[in-house]
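Justification of computing resources. Each target in the renewal requires a structure prediction run like the one illustrated here; the chain below, 349 residues long, is used simply to show the kind of job we budget for.
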Amino acid sequence: MYVTIERCLNGLTAGIERSSGIQAVMLKAARKPWLWAWRIVSHSWYGALAIWRWRLCEMTALGARWLAGNRGEEPLDDKLRSCLCTQRQLESKEFQNWAAKMQEPLERADRKLWEWCFITQALHERGMLSPGKRGLGFAVGQEPLADLFASMGCEIVATDLCTEEAKNAGWTSTDQHARSLEVLNKRGICPPETFKQRASFQFLDMKALPDDLGRFDFIWSSCSLEHLGTMALGERFLLDSIKYLKPGGVSVHTTEFNLSSRWSTVTDGPVVLFRKKDVQRIASKLRESRHQTELDFRRGHMPLDRVVARPPYGAAPHFNLLLYNEYVVTSFGMIIESEDDGGARINAS
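Resulting structure tokens:
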């Protein structure tokens, strides 16, 4: 809400400046103390109110399940579907096995590790992680997936934003950017010489996908498409990137998911938040073009599924975060399977 109010005041100030031809100095000066006061108040209680509002909705949903006779955890599906991050999945034998291969501590419990394991398990179940398969990764940063996939015999093209643009966006200062092929092999999951033979790296802007990258058996990205500036750009990337898939190819992506509201959300800015209806809209467009995705919006009900991390997040385990001091969010993984030639663009408008 603070962001919304500040934007309204900025718009009002700009309107006065345009109509009067002078700078609205007095208005700018008058609004500052009010905004500072609101920021202090909002950080002290508004974020807590947002969390408790979400918890009340979760308790209501849990109560409805209990009254309906569903009083235990539902069994995990034999095959992953597009779904929400849960503690139970991360603690499953399959996810723990991938975490070990990525050289991640098995006791680590957060949604980033869930995203990496989700992408890997989804590709593995669909026969993508085997010798000779070609994979394309977007905004790979310094994640271990390219290294892991190459160790399993895959030919990998890893991409990331060019260094200067990544620096301006703040990705280099937090070690979330790849500037060379060697960075992707830091863990040595794949022997260095073998990695150089099987993997390549190039700069790529997800907002301007080229047509000359070729075709791949699978593509992936981990919590990247929500950082493209607007929800429309994130959706367009998700739909347009299908052109890189071979027939029968698989596309797996994770992104931010708004747990707090099906109506209010953030559609532009450094991090946009997809709602249930946004994901359903994208799935509908995919199905119209003969691409398949099965959606599962079930929430987890284990202890960490009910914990919300607040800024500064630190290293504490977290599956849910409070963003913009207003929305409780988690990760959503989307699995898209191509049934046609994969070359036709999907209408993202």
